[in-house]
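Sanity check

After download, print the first record. It should look like this:
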Amino acid sequence: MDSIFYTFVILLFVAVVLAIEGGYQWWNARHGSAAKRIESRFRAMSAGGQVQKERLSILKERMLNDSRPFDRLLMRLPRVRSIDRLLQQSGMSWSVPKLVGICAIFPPVVMIVLSLTALPIAIAALIALASAGLPLLHVLRCRQRRMRKLERQLPDVCDMIARALRSGHAFTSAIGMVSDQFSEPMGSEFRITFDEINYGVSLHDALMNLATRVPVQDLRYFVIAVLIQRETGGNLAELLDSISTLIRERFKLFDKIRVLSAEGRMSAWVLGLLPFGTAGMMMLANREFLSVLWEDPAGLKVVGGMLVLMLFGLVWMRSIIRIRA
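Expected C-alpha cells:
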C-alpha cells in the first residue's frame, strides 16, 4: 500500500512538472522573444506594400492563422492595413486589436472619473468620447518621434555606405553593415531590407518596401538615387556624399527656423491654454460662477463661439510659425 501511494505521488509530481513545462513551452512559442521577433518581421514585410502577391498571401495567412476570431474580423475591415503600418512605423509592439481595445476602454473610464466632478453630463460625455482618440494620438506622437530620429540618422547612413563602397564592398553588403552597426531605429529598418534581399526579394522591391515603411522624404530621395544609379551607372559613393551633405544643410536651416519661431510657438501654447487654466481655477474657487455658461442657452452659444475663435486663432498661428524649406 505504501509503495503504491509513493508511486502515485511520484507520478503526480512528474505529471505536474510536465504540465508546467508544456505550458511554458506553449507560452514561449506564442509570446516569447523569438515569436515576437518573427511576428514583427512578418508584419514589417507585409506592411511594405510592394511584395509579390503570392508572398503577401502567405504572410497574411501566417499572421492570421492562429489569431482570434475578433482579430480576423478586424483585419477584414478597410483601412486596417494602414493602421497596422502606422503601428509598425511608430516602433511600438501594439497590434491593431490592442489599439482598438485601448481606445474602447478609455471613454467609460474617463466617464466614471468625470462623473465624480461637478461637470454636466453632456460635457463629460463629450470629453469621454474625445478621450478615445488619446491612444491614437500617442501612436502618432511615437511615430513622429521615430521618423524624426530616422531622418537624423540618414546622413550617417549615407556616409557609411559611401565608405563601404569605396573600400570595395557591394551595395548589399553595405546595407548589412548598416543593419549591424547602427542603433535603433535605422538599424532595424535596414536589417529588414537586408533580410528581404537574402530571402529572394529583388533589390528594387526591397528598397521600395523600405521607402514605404519609412515615409521620410530624404530617405525616398536616397532610394530613388540608388535605383536610378543602378540603371544608368555612375559613382554611387559620390552621389551618397552629395545626399548626406544636402540633408545636413537642410537640418541646419530647419534648426535655425525652429529657433526663430520658438517665441511664436510659446505664444500659441500660452494663448491656447490660458482660458482653460483660468476657467479651471475659477471652478475651484467658485463652482457656480461659471455654471451660467452651460445652464443658459446664451452661455452655450458664447462657449461655442469662443471655441471656434480659439481654434481659428491656433490654426492661423500655426500657419505663421510653420515654415517649410
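If your output differs, re-run the checksum step. Summary of this record's structure: The first helix runs from residue 2 to 31.
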